[in-house]
Amino acid sequence: MSGMEQVFEADVQVGSVEQQVKGTKTPFVIVLGPGVDKISGAQIEAAEWIDWQKRVGPKALALQGQTASARLKIKLVAKNDNSGYFTNRELVEIAPLGALPPPAQPLPGGVPAQPIAPVIPQPVAAPVAPAPQAPVSPSPAPAAQGDVAAFLAREDAREASRTRQGAVRAASEYVGALAAGGLYKTADEADQALRARINDLTNFVSLGSFNPAGEANVTPEELAASVPNTTVGVPFDPNEEQA
Question: How far apart (Å, rounded) are the C-alpha atoms in residues 213 and 210?
Fold first, then answer.
């Protein structure tokens, strides 16, 4: 333990890996499954870990869906109002299972990693076992890798909720502007337009198209076939006399 900082080494399952906007930075956010610290035996719960330097994130992306060896750091930062601490979780290093480099090995660019206390005690007259280190997060770890899937499912549910909220807000502003311009004669017409706009925006965000799944796009040929005396590709003559 160094101040309010704890370093762990564990074999964990690599979940989602993506860059997110946090203030003015775009770090990698990596979801890792539960594990057991090889140094202290502490349980490590499934959680999101941050790669602020964007150095370890690409490695985690290459190991996505696999079990890997990771070096993790948890740092407690006191809140300004002294009401408690913020918990910062950082992914320091990750490698294929069993291939994690030692912590004292220099990182790319020649910057040495922060050393931790050696595991082997210094020789003394009477060997003394190192004192066990208490885990920073006392919450029990999930019992199985199935909890990682549950964690990811909750993340998907929150993302879907944010998508729906965004669609409702954008549709309300759009239909409200049209209603203010007198486009709708009744409240029922505005309500129907609002529901249709929400569905359109949700389909576009979820499916990448305004057309629901299974609904075929209308081609120019099909549209021309429904209009008498119309042929696709025939230019319009502005000098043609009207019948």
Answer: 9
Measured CA to CA, the distance from residue 41 to residue 37 in angstroms comes to 5
Q: At what angle do helices 146-180 and 187-207 cross, to 10 degrees?
A: 140
Q: Contact, 62 vs 54, CB < 8 A?
A: no
* pLDDT computed for residue 48 by the predictor: 94
Using alpha carbons, select from 3, 232, 28 the residue that is nearest to residue 114.
3
pLDDT mean values, one per 10 residues, the chain (243 residues): 75 94 92 92 92 93 95 89 86 94 58 48 59 59 61 80 82 83 83 85 70 55 58 53 47
Question: What is the model's pLDDT at position 109?
Answer: 40
Residues facing residue 42 across a β-bridge? none
Supply the pLDDT for residue 35.
93
**Distance of alpha carbon 45 from alpha carbon 55, whole angstroms:** 23
**Integer CA distances (angstroms), 155 to 27, 44, 127, 200, 232, in order:** 18, 19, 48, 23, 48
The answer to whether 30 and 15 are in contact (CB under 8 A) is: yes
Contact between residue 234 and residue 221 where contact means Cβ atoms under 8 Å apart: no
Q: Is the dihedral of CA 75, 13, 19, 21 positive or negative?
A: negative
Tokens matching residue 90: 């950082």
What confidence score (pLDDT) does residue 116 get? 47
Question: What radius of gyration, in Å, describes the C-alpha atoms of the chain?
Answer: 29
Distance between CA atoms of residues 221 and 54, nearest Å: 50
Contact 8, 41 (CB under 8 A): no
> What tokens were used for 36?
């057991």
